[in-house]
Design a protein that fits this description.
Distance between the termini: 33 Å
Keywords: Cytoplasm, Peroxisome, Protein transport, Repeat, Transport, WD repeat
Number of strands: 29
Helix content: under 10%
Strand order of the largest sheet: 1-2-29-28-27
Subunit structure: Interacts with PEX5; interaction only takes place when PEX7 is associated with cargo proteins. Interacts with VWA8.
CATH architecture: 7 Propeller
Family: Belongs to the WD repeat peroxin-7 family.
Order of helices and strands: EEEEEEEEEEEEEEEEEEEEEEEEEEEEEH
Subcellular location: Cytoplasm, Cytosol; Peroxisome matrix
Radius of gyration: 18 Å
GO molecular function: enzyme binding; peroxisome matrix targeting signal-2 binding; protein homodimerization activity
Shape: globular
Length: 323
């Protein structure tokens, strides 16, 4: 593994590992988790990488191997050492970065690949939601050995499951069935079904500043914003990517700023309130860019990872100017 600072971009090269997801720690500034897979996730094993930043670049703090590809990762919201990953074998893994080996626990109920996992930000509850290619979403409490309930309704693979940062017990999911769905844990049922694209929807995210605003990113290369009070039409559409959008994230610092990464190898930054919404296009990967996150601690810092075996942390010009 080699780390290279340069041009303001800190890069860690991870030979033989193709990055699927990158998530900044909500606790430790500069700490990053990356879920990666061998052989583009089609075969082979997976690795959870824990990275730290220092003056010379990126340093590998710890890595954990799993016997199938890892597709997503989420940090615990109540323990700075704990995270959950999900895998191609249908399982979720609970890891502790304070220990050299792991996992602490494995949750195996999904019958196909688990593509998405997210830890609830609601204080006082430890809830994790997972989305699978078996067309179900499952709800977990990591202190309980089995799932609390299963949500059915999607008619194709589920790519993304994200908790609302505003409404306890509420989460969104997006699917190959071309819908965005909003669910309520208390009723274990779907609240809203949005036929959001005429294409598979690979990603969705909640606005941090507006409890009614969710964004979707799809194989049709478009990003669409949805006001959940009236989902007849999107409130914005962002065009510019030339291949499928793999992941989208709202900014934690700016109400109308979001970032997206794509199979076109780029990361793009947008301000959907502007007539000309595209702020910046970052082209520093040479393969599908799958993982993306915006730091909760630094208003300018972004992390991404791609199938070119690199993980990068950088400060895009547009965010530096906003700060």
């Amino acid at each position: 593994m080699s780390a290279t600072p340069g041009g303001g971009v800190r890069t860690l090269r991870v030979p033989g590992r193709h990055g699927y997801a990158a998530e900044f720690s909500p606790y430790l500034p500069g700490r990053l988790a990356c879920a990666a897979s061998q052989h583009y996730g089609i075969a082979g094993s997976g690795t959870l990488l824990i990275l730290d930043q220092n003056e010379s670049g990126l340093r590998l703090f710890r890595s954990f191997d799993w016997n199938d590809g890892l597709f997503d990762v989420t940090w615990s919201e109540n323990n700075e050492h704990v995270l959950v990953t999900c895998s191609g074998d249908g399982s979720l893994q609970l890891w502790d970065t304070a220990r050299a080996t792991g996992p602490l626990q494995v949750f195996k109920e999904h019958t196909q690949e688990v593509y998405s996992v997210d830890w609830s930000q609601t204080r006082g509850e430890q809830l994790v939601v997972s989305g699978s290619w078996d067309q179900t979403v499952k709800l977990w409490d990591p202190t309980v050995g089995k799932s609390l309930c299963t949500f059915r309704g999607h008619e194709s693979v589920i790519y993304s499951t994200i908790w609302s940062p505003h409404i306890p017990g509420c989460f969104a999911s997006s699917s190959g069935d071309q819908t965005l769905r909003i669910w309520d844990v208390k009723t274990t049922g779907v609240r809203i079904v949005v036929p959001a694209h005429q294409a598979e929807i690979l990603s969705c995210d909640w606005c941090k500043y507006n409890e009614n605003l969710v964004v979707t990113g799809a194989v049709d290369c478009s990003l669409r914003g949805w006001d959940l009070r009236n989902v007849q039409q999107p409130v914005f559409e962002l065009l510019g990517h030339t291949y499928a959008i793999r992941r989208v994230k709202f900014s934690p610092f700016h109400a109308s700023v979001l970032a997206s990464c794509s199979y076109d190898f780029t990361v793009r930054f947008w301000n959907f309130s502007k007539p000309d919404p595209l702020l910046e296009t970052v082209e520093h990967h040479t393969e599908f860019t799958c993982g993306l996150d915006l730091s909760l601690q630094s208003p300018t810092q972004v992390a991404d990872c791609a199938w070119d075996e690199t993980i990068k942390i950088y400060d895009p010009v547009c965010l530096t100017m906003l700060a």
